User: What shape does this take?
Amino acid sequence: MLTRFGGVLYRARWGVLLISLLLIIGMGIFGFSLFGLLKNGGYSDPNSEATRAEQILDTKLGGAIPDVVILMRSATLKASDRAFAQAAQHLLTSLKNRSEVASLISYYSTHSQRFISLDGHQTFAMLQLSNLDFAAKQKEYLTLEPLITSPTLEVSTGGSIPISVAISRQMSADLQQAEMLTFPILALLLLFVFGGMIAAGLPLLIGGVAILGGFAVLHLVAMLTDVSVFAPNVVTMLGLGLAIDYALFIVTRFREELRIDENDVRGALERTMATAGHTVIFSALTVGTSLLGLLFFPVTFLRGIGLGAIAAILMVMLTSLTLLPAILAILGRRVNALSLSRFARAHASEEQRGFWYRLSEAVMRWPLPIALVTLTILLTLGWPFLHIKFATPDEQVLPIGQKERVVSEQLRQHFPQQGNALLTIAITTPGQALSSSNLASLDSYVRSITIIAGVIHVESLVTINHALSLPQYQKLYAHPALNAQIAQAAQQLANGDVTKIVVHLQPAEHSVDTTMIVNKVRALHAPGGLIPLVDGITAGQVDLLDSLGVNLPYAMLVIIISIFVLLFLMTRSLILPLKAIFLNILSLSATFGGMVWIFQDGHLQKLLHFQLPGSIDATQPVLIFSIAFGLSMDYEVFLLSRIKERYDQTGDNRQAISSGLQRTGWLITSAALLLAIVLGAFGGAKIILIQEIGIGLAVAVVMDATLIRMLLVPATMRLLDSVNWWAPSFLGGSRPRPAPEQPPIEPVVEARPTQPARKDRRSSVSRHKQKR
Assistant: This one.
């Protein structure tokens, strides 16, 4: 089928090129309008308790956390001074009158000392935006941002919406920086690998087209569901990296086939599609299948990244199997034009003299010692993974000194209790929350919370004034107009059948003590039919880790089974897929160990310019496992396709391994180097999550292309010998019979004597008879 498809592409090459150009223009226009639809956050399970609490509070009480925090400071004036107060109130009044603002709470409206810094020179206000949609909130904030300024005070903004906007801006800057850094380096390396400017330019061309296509598909996805702001960076990483891999493989095979007969472009293209095209399809399917595991997680961040990555892989596969062959059909032997030297990859066919052949033979001469040493290295590299600590991302993903991050740091350092953990509890009551019976039940529930060790203070409808008793609260809430403080509390803490409790804790967020308090609060019995849902940073982290832990086994099972089936269909062996999966898991454990050593332990902190977080984002191992597992299988498919091709010809396991490694060793190494450069370029990003993804995947790719493919694969295949290819007969397993002697690349053209020579021979025989 692929052979016929290659012939169709050859005949329709100009039409394919024209249609591709039109699609590229359309994808570019549609794809780059994606960025306005992306969303920050999405690190929670929508079915979790914390998320449900957040949704109730957003709908009924203006939000669980403020959308915008406005920090106002003066080096000479205190917040209680008249000049400071006038300047602050002028700013806040101008904002409060805007239609984009739903509520605005500050020291000047509550006179609460928690809004005043310890030195008295700073104060903050909490602003809630009108719209409930996250993207609409971002637009509202961008409208208000130029107005949040004062000639008297130093004003800066923080909170969830400004942090989201800052992350989006930084992500765009990081993406541009990575592309500007990557493309020139890749161009030089591809020029070295191919030895010609035309051939070297094709992978970059296909990579650019694949990225545009990935953005266009991602735009369609973003119109149907939430997509993370990090998705375009992952699309760029995978789109460019895999496009280079596939283009390198197809162009190399085309040039190899073209050496048989430079005038037979159609035949070379058909053979390339039947071999390299077949491998690209299996490779794309294995990578895409491994990413399907991300869709098993209800976490929006992972699902959005997974959909974006799958879109990128599909576009890379389609582009590599349509546009690239059409260009090769047009170029023909001109694919070798503008060569910097006459050196070609002839050594790829010198099976018994090439470096990779000699390396594989050396490894297979001592397979057991080499396998044991390599396994020891991998286990040692993976050792740090045993002390990994997980956390959820916060403002610290932003670079040091970013103003939105500085606001959060100032609040924690200079304001009482702002550095401590908070729990926000959304309570649904039977009937009106301000009824006497519900206030009595709420009072009992609040008392059970206050006696938990580590709880400092509880804000609720029944703790506004400690001088008031429950009967007094019940009487005042029945007539809230009699007391301004009670009326304000009723407005801020209750709406219909929903009320809010804010619990101030002594320990900090993400700590073990805070996690224990969350579990204790959730275990409390709520009397009177109250339904409490606990939210907060640590509560959300607890729910996220629980969600990941529940869904991870199912995702891994689907990935492993799918990859096993695909590799079996390609190799017709039950042993090779099992071995490949085991080696991949081993390689990934070493990768995770490297991530812990670099980011959690901070050994490359100065080189990569990040602040030591002391933990790893909980979603990163899941994300990197899915992507790196697929990329590792990418190289496995490249190598096994050539080994199997040779094994089908000869039936000699050892010869097939050496031949396959000789023909693909340089290719896999070059592809891994190029892909590692693409991924490693994102290690210079200012957002630490992107640094973790880029560096983690680069380490995985390098480790897989060196320790796994160069050493462990030939060593284990030599140890297994003919068992490598075992499968039951009912599954199609059988040992191939050696074919008649065939040169591996070039056909042998037998020299036949010409007709005159045969006549001369007959005449010489006749003369000999006559003499006798």
Q: What stands out?
A: The first helix runs from residue 2 to 11. Residues 342-351, 737-772 have pLDDT under 50 and may be disordered. Residues 2-39+168-385+573-725 form a domain with the Multidrug efflux transporter AcrB transmembrane fold fold (CATH 1.20.1640.10). The two ends are 64 Å apart (CA to CA).
